[in-house]
Structures are given as C-alpha cells and as structure tokens.
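Thanks for the sequence, V.! I ran Multidrug effflux MFS transporter right away. Repeating your input here for the record:
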Amino acid sequence: MKPTNRFLLVFILGLLSAIGPFSIDMYLPGFPDIAKDLNTTVATISLSLSSFFIGISVGQLIYGPLLDRFGRKTPLYVGLISYVITSAGCAMAASSHQLIILRFLQALGSCAGMVASRAMVRDLFPVNKTAKVFSQLMLVIGVSPIIAPTAGGYLTAAFGWHSIFIVLTIMVALILVGVHFYLPESRKADKNVSLKPTLIFKNYVNVLKEPQFITYAFTGALASAGLYAYISGSPFVCMQLFHASEKLYGWIFAIIASGLIACSQVNSFLLKEKKSEQIIKRALLFQSITAILLFVCTSFGLLNLFGTVAFIFVFLCCQGFIFPNSSALSLAPFTKNAGSASAMLGTIQMSIGALSSAMVSFLSNNTALPMTGVMAICATGAFSILLIGHTIIRYKAKQEDVNEETAEMISNL
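Predicted structure:
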C-alpha cells in the first residue's frame, strides 16, 4: 500500500471513528445554555449524553451482522445518512425529552462509522500491525476532544447551542462524501451470513466464548468508562463547582485531550520494542494509582481546579496506551466475523460507558466525588479484570494446543 493511500485510508477511518466522540464532546460546553433554554437542569440534559451512549450500544449490535452480510460500505451509508437527519432534528429540539430521544437516534447513526472503521482495520491490515493502526486512528480521534469542546464553547457563546448540531450535520455530510469517493470496500457482501436472530445471537455468543476477547474487551471498556465518567461530570465540576467559563472549559478539555493523543503516538513507538500485552498492563497499573490518589485528594478537599485537571490529565494519558492495545488484542482472534466482533466490542465499551455516565449523574451531590469515585472504580476494576483474564488465558492454553502466535502472546502476559 502506497504511503499516500495509507494516510488517506487511515484518515477517513479515523474520521468515521471520531463521529461519536465529536457528537459527545462538542455540545458539552453548551449544557448550561441548553438547560436554561429548555427550562430544565444540567443533570437532566446530562441524560441526553447517557441516551447517546445507550443508542451506540444498541446500534452496534445491529450493524455488526449487517456489515458481515452486506459488506462494509452499504450499512455505513445508511448510518451516516440517518445521522445527518437526526442531527438536524437535535438542532430543532424544543424540549429536553425531544433532545434525549433525538440523541438516541443520532447515536444509532453514528455507531455505523465506529463499527465499520474497526472492522475495516481488521480487514485491511495484518494482525501484528493493527495496534499501530489503532494508535494512528487515535491521532484523528484525539483531535475531537481538542477541537470539539473548544469549538462548542465558541459556537454556543456566538450563535447559541443550536449551531453545534448544525455544524455536526454539515461535518458528517462531508465525511459521507469522502467515504463514497475515497474509502475502498474491504469486504464483499456474503450471502452465507445469516440475519436470522437466532444465528446472530449464536454468533455473538461464540465471540463471547473467546477468553482473549473477553479479557481485553472488558479491560478496555472499563478503562474507557473512566473517560466517560470524566466527560459526564466535568461540565459541572469545571463550570459550576470551580466557576470556569465556557471558553476556559473548552481549553481545559483540549489540554487534557492533548495528553491522550500524545501518549497514543508514543504507544506506536513503544510497539517497536514492547508487546501490546506488556504496555497495557503497566498503563493500567499507573492509571489505577492515579485514580485512587485523585479520589482521596478530592475527598479531603485538597484540590482546586488546576490540581484536579492535573490528575485527570495523567489519568487520560494512560488511556492513550490502553485503548489501541486493548482494541487490537480484542479483535486479533477474529477474521471472518470481524464485523460482529467489532460490534460486540463497541457495545461492551459503550454500555459500560453509559452506565458510568449515568452513575455520575445519579450520584450527583454538588461535589467532584461522584466523578472521581467512578473514575477510580473503573481504573481499578479494569486492572483487576486484566489480571484475572491473564490467569484464565494461561489456564486455557495449558488445556489445549495453541498456535505459535498465541504462545508468543501468552509469554508476554
């Protein structure tokens, strides 16, 4: 593959992966204005974030079999077009209930890009290169937390919160054009893939029977849930608890995200010397320690705005190492049903993310404790699952013959 073609391919796949994060991050600075305009509270508007996570979770399970049955691009077109329509609807929402429902429908469209991009990475690149490709995707995805909240803050201040969804509508319409003209079809339609509910369910069950998938999918999902807890809780913590302006919040969000991006690129260089299994274990240990310290310091009131931001910055730097490696290791055992595996991976991630986001809202007590507490639980839980999963993988390997690639992976646990 020519360098230019590879760059364009990864860039478009990154844009597809970034639709969901952009849809989440861009409207966060507008929460207070949305709540005021729709005569409700910020906590109620936060439920539109939870409904978005739920929509992505449900939608990915739908798109997985469709991507295996009809090829990658046809279901992708359907998802992107539906996103454009529902985003325009969000801009015209007249109540919090309408916004919550429309955000759910918007998520159903956005998840097509997320599932398709992961599946196409597995289609187009060798297994030993996928972690590096996911790190490169993070460079594109990571632009979202830098640009989106900052742009959302300025758009809200200048034109009102409705303009955020108008911009999202235009952005995805342009991505749709790029997909049509520049993204190759990585898998042809396969009529042998059944869309009968019982067989789809059986296929998903087979994915969940793979110990390597279970270990790294849930490890990555819980670690990512800490990120979603931060996303859900940070508007209140930064703008209401610490009285940061919308613009300052956007810049804080951007600075924190820059750490995640930088570390995802450092991960690419580390993969030349270290294995994904080794990197993710160290990153999770450090993230767990950071999250515990953040929660303890918050409990005793030792942190101001910038101290809190500093801890969160370190926490999310670890995510730059965890996400690409957990994604690559989760999908490595699959070839034929990579679409279904990708869908299940995304569903697990977003379901746990939605739960953590909802928990931050449910536990709201006018302090930063709900956000930092959920972040600590997610990080330590992810590290615990990784250690338990490694034990199960080793045990299974002793009970049956494994190929050379699996044997090498086990040696690095």
